[in-house]
Each structure stands twice: as structure tokens, then as C-alpha cells.
Design a protein that fits this description.
Layout lengths: L11 E8 L10 H17 L3 E7 L3 E8 L2 H22 L12 E5 L2 H12 L1 H4 L14 H5 L6 H8 L5 H6 L15 H12 L3 H6 L1 H13 L6 H8 L3 H7 L1
Antiparallel strand pairs: 1-3, 1-4, 2-3
Length: 246
């Protein structure tokens, strides 16, 4: 069973995503990325936000946060983006919106998804072909988790809640793509990956409630769009059997 993320009442781990208007490269230069990171730290301190992980790409950014007061996360993101928008417009002699939408946020309810998000965030530049290794990218929090000195022990304790080998624990996290934009996906490929991760055969999934429910939870937690009809079809069981099992 995955460990439950701590203090879900009144506090929250939250994955926040921002993107440039019309997918504009609003973080294209080194100075722009550095500016946004400095604002994250500035307003993180103001609102007592722990920045668990971040990655600033050219046209979007991921910021994973923890706060004892969930309302502070919204204030933190609003002031960070407002000040950055003023800076960006002024330095580019432009007016108008800088960010696409206000920002998107997803509350993280369990330890398993928390670790997936951290790994997903840090792997952005690798998947984009910018670097070969996540720790080579200069504009992410990957060094928090790979620095042998454990200089960010407060963050590491929030994530792992242990006094073990943080670097080893981090390296043990398996990367998985997350469907954060809710794009259409190939459910058969997702099923294959699930079976491989669980080290089970399709026949076990077809006949054991525990695996059916775990697969259902897996789809929901990763925000994959599906219907029960879709689910029954890819598992190769009748809808009536699926309904009985779940």
C-alpha cells in the first residue's frame, strides 16, 4: 500500500503548471528562467510555501508545492505570475496577457503520486531532448535530490519522511509519463505498462478484484480519460463482470 501524504486537512501538496499564452516562449532566455525561479523563492518565503520540485522550460513551468494552509498556494502562484508578467512585458516592450489561463493545479493525495510527480517534473528536459540526464538541467530542483550533502534536508524529509539514503530513494523512483493535459491516450499501451509494473499476467487482472481496482485507481490518479466500456474492452471481459468486480 502507498504511504499517505501527510496532513491533508488544511494543508496540501499541489502540482502547479503554468504555460505561456498561445504557448509563447516566455522563459526562453537564461535571465527569464532565473527571474522566475527568484520569484518562486521570494513568494515562497512570503507565504511559507515549501517548493518540493520545479522545472522551468521555455514555454511552461512545473512547480510542486507544500503548504500548511492550502489557500496560500493560490496567493503564492498569483503574486509570482503577476510580478513575472510585469517584468516580461516591460523587458519585451509588449502589453497583454503573458500566461495561458491563470494556472492549473492538482492536489496530490498520496505518496505514490507525489513521487511520480517529482520524477516527471525533473525528467521534462530529458524527454524534450535538451539534456541526457535530469541533473544536467540548470533550471530545475533536481539537485535537491542528487546532492550528497543533503543541503535541502527539510524538503527531503517532507517527501520521504525518513532518515535513510535520500539519493538512493530518489533514484529508485521509476519515471512514468503523466497525462497532465488530459490528452487522448492509448489505453492498451497503458494496460501493458501497468501489467509490466505489477509483474502480473492479464488473466490475473481479469479475475482478481484487487488488481482491477488497482488498475482503476491507476487510471484515475494519472487523469487518463476512459469509460467503463473502454475498460472492459481492453481487459477483455464483459461489462457486467467488470461492474461486479468494482
Amino acid at each position: 500500500m502507498p504511504r499517505t501524504a501527510r496532513k491533508l486537512i488544511g494543508s496540501a501538496y499541489m502540482h502547479n503548471m503554468v504555460q505561456g499564452i498561445k504557448k509563447e516562449y516566455i522563459f526562453k532566455s537564461v535571465s527569464q528562467k532565473d527571474k522566475y525561479i527568484s520569484l518562486l523563492k521570494k513568494y515562497g518565503q512570503k507565504y511559507n510555501i515549501a517548493i518540493i520540485a520545479y522545472c522551468i522550460m521555455d514555454n511552461h513551468a512545473h512547480i510542486l508545492t507544500y503548504s500548511e494552509n492550502i489557500n496560500n498556494i493560490s496567493l503564492f502562484m498569483k503574486e509570482t505570475n503577476t510580478e513575472y508578467a510585469i517584468y516580461y512585458n516591460k523587458s519585451n516592450n509588449r502589453v497583454g496577457y503573458v500566461f495561458r489561463n491563470r494556472f492549473n493545479s492538482k492536489i496530490i493525495y498520496n505518496q505514490e503520486y507525489l513521487l511520480k510527480c517529482i520524477k516527471y517534473i525533473h525528467m521534462n528536459p530529458v524527454k524534450a531532448g535538451i539534456t541526457e540526464k535530469e541533473e544536467e538541467y540548470k533550471f530545475s530542483s533536481s539537485p535537491y535530490y542528487t546532492n550528497k550533502k543533503n543541503e535541502n534536508s527539510e524538503i527531503l524529509n517532507l517527501v520521504f519522511k525518513s532518515k535513510g539514503n535520500f539519493i538512493q530513494e530518489y533514484n529508485n523512483i521509476k519515471y512514468e509519463p503523466l497525462n497532465l493535459e488530459k490528452e487522448k491516450v492509448n489505453l492498451s499501451s497503458i494496460l501493458e505498462r501497468f501489467l509490466e509494473n505489477e509483474k502480473i499476467e492479464l488473466s490475473q487482472l481479469q479475475n482478481e478484484k484487487i488488481y482491477i481496482k488497482k488498475f482503476l485507481s491507476y487510471l484515475i490518479s494519472n487523469e487518463y480519460e476512459f469509460t467503463k466500456k473502454d475498460l472492459a474492452k481492453i481487459i477483455h471481459i464483459s461489462r457486467s463482470k467488470l461492474y461486479r468486480m468494482i
